Amino acid sequence: MGYNNTVAIISNNEFTLSEIKNMLVLLRDIDKVECIDYYEADEFIKKTIPSVIILHSTESDKNCLRLLKKIRSSEKTKNVPVILYPEFSSTDYIVEAFDNGVSDILTSPLKDYELVIRVIWAIQKSEEAQIMEAKDNFLAKLGIIDHKTGFYKEDFSLRYLESVVSSAKANKQKSCLVLIKILSAIDVNFDKNMFKEALKSSIRLNDTIAMKDENTYYIFLSKAKLNGVYSVYERILSKLGPMTSINASVIEIQDELFDDIINVLEYSIQKAPKNGEMAIVSKQDFLDMYKKEEKEELGISKLLKEEPKKTIKQQEIQVEQNNIPEHNSEEDKINLGIKIMQEKVKEIETKGEKALLTHKSEALKEAETREIDERNATLYKQAYAKKLRMIVEPLLEKYAAKMQAEYPLLDANVNVSPHSTFMNFDKDDVKLNFEMSYDGIKTLKFNLKVSALNTELESDSFELDVMEFNHQALDVILQTLVDEYKNYLSEN
Predict the structure, then answer these.
(1) Which of residues 277, 295, 313 is at a domain's end?
(2) Residue 229: pLDDT band with limits 50, 70, 90
(3) DSSP H/E element including 261
(4) Less CB within 10 Å around the terminal CB: N or C of the chain?
């Protein structure tokens, strides 16, 4: 009798292999369970292609992560669900496992019903992947998608996107649509297939990519919010490295018309500075797209702050003022004046009550803030360390490489570490200094300076919350600073 599904348990511990296998007796008779050690695992996976793989590791075993990378790098097994069962693992190890494509994590002690549920869930995911693969093969034969990349071809992209966007809106499902474009590549041997692979390997199984042209692609991220888009974008950037510059615009799909969504994405990406940043589409962008009004150019610090807008209350007051009827009699005018004065008194009293409540709760809020900061200190440090690796280092190296390509005699110095991060440029005694410092809890401090012959020409200092710091924010800072530096170089 043939088997529908094969579950492979991989471990060098015979007791663990037996324990997990015995817990899986609740699976169907037509599902097969195989126990393999790490020495045989690679060959077994190539021949069998399991439906689900359970990886057991002890004390942050790197052999487990190496095997996981092999599984994900193979075209045949890249979509096979992998469940990790680690013992005594660090947070960094778990994060690295997820970065390399693990599907789920088991915790000790194992519970038989939980293990069976997780495996059944993984089998369902595996079956879904097989169905999607069959669908993609069929669409490739029809010439709708590229059989090498799985991307929807240019002629069918908009029709496909309109369909999935319509479905997301009908089901009130949070989804995002991203437009991403190659701006330039410093490396003359840059292969666009590398860019396609970076896109493909950075999305989930249920996400799809559609081609606009050879340099521009749409990414539809189902069941995703904006924070999930940033994670995808940062993965793409880290895979491409500092030698490639890309731009992107993103919209969180709500009730907008499909044609307007496509138009505003293109409008936003065209208006974005050519520095590899991501532009988030807002309601105002829809208005700007038709008004075609150019925004005022802002300084380094102001670029990171939201443009002030008229508040709803101010708008309501303006509407009320516009709708006030004309009062001809003196009595009407007096009554109107009394009414306005009463409203002002009430507003002042309300403000006073709010101020009193705010004052009373200040001490409590400060105490809570200190407690939260202390409790989350480890989380903040881990987040900062990851952002140094995935955001700061690639971006600093990218800007250093771009400047040295543009100015061959420029001396560039980049250093990235938890304790000291800086980027320095020096050409013809005109110097640029960029420094980042971290307080160990949640505040990032930035010092930016351009000088010539030890005379300060321009400087700026400001702070950001480490959890709000992202690729876009740093890119804006660096691009603005580098542009200022270039202006001083041209003057000399």
Answers:
(1) 295
(2) confident
(3) helix 258-271
(4) N
